[in-house]
Specification:
This protein is an alpha/beta fold. Among the domains are: 329-372; 382-453, Orthogonal Bundle (Arc Repressor Mutant, subunit A), CATH 1.10.10. The protein has 18 helices and 12 strands. The protein has helices at 17-32, 51-64, 78-90, 101-113, 129-137, 195-204, 217-229, 260-265, 270-279, 292-298, 313-325, 329-338, 346-353, 363-372, 382-393, 404-416, 420-432, 440-453, and strands at residues 4-7, 36-41, 70-73, 94-97, 143-146, 162-167, 171-176, 184-186, 209-213, 236-240, 243-244, 309-310. The chain has a 3-stranded parallel sheet with strand order 1-2-3, covered by helices on one side. The chain is elongated, with a radius of gyration of 31 Å. The structure holds glutamic acid. Residues 8-10, 42, 194, 198, 210, 212, 216 line the site of glutamic acid (GLU).
């Protein structure tokens, strides 16, 4: 059977680095197993879900290097869920409940005071046909609960019922169905909670592995029971730890914290984001690799830690720098060209500056320095000014190459007696306007003799 995974966000906001972790765990798992990746939008909440968010999520995934084999929307499949509801009702596994939230809360408190687990006591199962009619005559509408298989004969005598699975990420897992309330699958206004549509889709779409955040571990107990109630075999499950901000807060699509779009706009490379999103919170070293196939080789689901993992955006910059440092010109060329960096000098320019930038768009600043001169006028002390002037008189004739800087500075050293920082810093300042930057040996041939002379203070 073809390994089939899915990434199933609700399109109610922009995805963040934590969502990207889920998407990438699925994508890499599919890559490693020659599998398929389905993009499924869990948009049963039609009021909060928006097509523009779904489009933005697809855009973000493409940017990260994820290209789904298929895309589907739950809002187009309500008829299929309705059929599953009928099937469950016919089997006596979905029952109508009429309690208001206040009534449920009161019952919960009573159970707690009697030292009983605060789960739903299935009171609605005891309603007679007349009682239900009377409630409906009062204008109450039912919500529908799934009868968990946590009893032998009598649903009011629940007993420990372990649902076990070997989690692709966490290893052996167990959920006791007797510790859970019968989940509501359909609200009183007829809308679906996520639980049932997700299982119905996973069956229909042939999903073989559900990989998602560990906030869903308990749901998995319920969902495995639901797969079985619908006559299907449950797929494999994997639950990865969640990412939090450095202060330990959870990430939310609604707050926009660490959104993929924001990271993209800040000029980061997609693979820096992907590498951190996947490797953080695992026993693997967090390194930057330039290709998804290389990240797949490092990806080992079972190496994931079980506790939440803090995410420090500063680590992204470290990874980004390392990607740029090793990035061949061919890979940067189009984006450099969009920044105005083109022509014969573009490649040697890139090789000169790539080790000195944190984000690729910063190359544009260096391009201006190389093509137009320092951005700010350089204010050298008088003795440095005359030193630089003398040095400029000693510039060797063209052609210039990578050795010209050494030839020139040797001559300057002999003529002036200056050496070390006292020699090169005034030259660096005059040539670039900045106290640090790419090797001057690399920059000099880019400036050319004429460009260099134009920088004489
Ligand atoms: N829509 C659910 C969520 O975003 C999907 C969970 C799942 O993968 O099953 O949490």
């Amino acid at each position: 059977m073809t390994v089939t995974v899915r990434f199933a966000p609700s399109p109610t906001g922009h995805i963040h680095i934590g969502n990207a972790r889920t998407a990438l765990f699925n994508w890499l798992f599919a890559m490693k197993n020659n599998g398929r990746f389905i993009q499924r939008f869990d948009d049963t909440d039609v009021l909060r879900s928006k097509q523009e968010y779904a489009d933005a999520i697809l855009y973000d995934l493409h940017w990260l290097g994820i290209f789904p084999d298929a895309t589907d929307y739950q809002s187009r499949r309500f008829g299929v869920y309705d059929a599953a509801v009928e099937k469950l009702k016919a089997a006596g596994l979905l029952y109508a409940c009429y309690e208001t939230p206040e009534e449920l809360e009161l019952r919960r408190k009573v159970r707690l005071s009697r030292k009983l687990p605060p789960v739903y006591g299935r009171e609605a199962l005891k309603l007679t046909g007349e009682e239900r009619e009377a409630l409906e005559a009062q204008g109450r509408k039912p919500h529908w609960r799934f009868l968990l298989p946590n009893f032998r004969e009598n649903p009011f005598e629940t007993e420990r019922t372990e649902i076990r699975w070997t989690d692709v990420v966490r290893g052996e897992e167990t959920v006791d169905l007797a510790s859970l309330s019968d989940p509501v699958l359909v609200r009183e206004d007829g809308t679906y909670l996520y639980t049932l549509p997700s299982v119905v889709d996973d069956i229909d779409m042939g999903v073989t592995h559900i990989i998602r955040g560990d906030d869903h571990v308990t749901n998995t107990g319920v969902q495995i029971a639901l797969f079985q109630a619908l006559g299907a075999e449950a797929p494999a499950f994997g639950h990865h730890n969640l990412l939090t901000t450095s202060s330990g807060e959870g990430l939310s699509k609604r707050t926009g914290a660490l959104s993929i779009g924001g990271l993209r706009e800040s000029g980061l490379e997609p693979m820096a984001v992907a590498c951190l999103a996947v490797l953080i919170g695992t026993s693997e070293n967090v390194v930057a690799v330039p290709k998804m196939s290389e990240l797949a080789a490092l990806f080992e689901p079972t190496a994931t830690s079980k506790s939440a993992s803090k995410f420090d955006p500063a680590d992204l910059v470290v990874l980004n720098r390392s990607l740029l440092h090793n990035m061949p010109f061919a890979e940067a060329q189009d984006r450099l060209s969009a920044l105005g960096v083109s022509g014969e000098r573009a490649e040697p320019f890139w090789l000169a500056v790539r080790g000195n930038i944190e984000k690729l768009p910063e190359a544009a600043n260096w391009w201006r320095v190389v093509t137009q001169g320092p951005q700010e006028s350089v204010d050298l002390p008088e003795n440095d000014r005359s030193f630089v002037s003398e040095a400029f008189d000693l510039l060797p004739p063209e052609p210039w190459d990578g050795t010209t800087w050494k030839t020139w500075t040797n001559a300057v050293k002999d003529a002036t007696g200056r050496k070390g920082k006292a020699l090169f810093m005034p030259l660096r300042l005059s040539l670039t306007g900045l106290a640090s930057g790419p090797e001057l040996a690399d920059l000099l041939p880019l400036l050319g003799r004429e460009g260099t002379l134009a920088r004489r203070p």
